[in-house]
Amino acid sequence: MTRVTPGSSVMSATVHDLSMRDGDSRSEWATNFSRTVADETRHGVRSGAITWAEADELLARLRVLVDQALDFTPQFS
Questions:
Q1: Is 7 exposed, middle or buried (0-12, 13-18, 19+ CB in 10 A)?
Q2: Within 10 A of 56 (CB to CB), how many other CB atoms are there?
Q3: What is the pLDDT of residue 58?
Q4: How far is CA 41 from its chain centroid?
Q5: How confident is the model at residue 67 (pLDDT cuts 50, 70, 90)?
Q6: How far is it, in rounded angstroms, from Cα 36 to Cα 13?
């Protein structure tokens, strides 16, 4: 869990706990993760930290990263 301290360079004061607990299903965790990314992205645009175009690029890169992380085919023989 990442906590935001006053005066830090972090833009949001929201605390998100993205750890997967025993009672969480994968779909619940994925939903929570998606909501967190969406909330933080919108907050970044509203605060002027990033533009909508930058947010789109960031989300496209994140999508590739997640796809690669979830690829179950062996990368090396």
A1: exposed
A2: 12
A3: 94
A4: 8
A5: confident
A6: 13
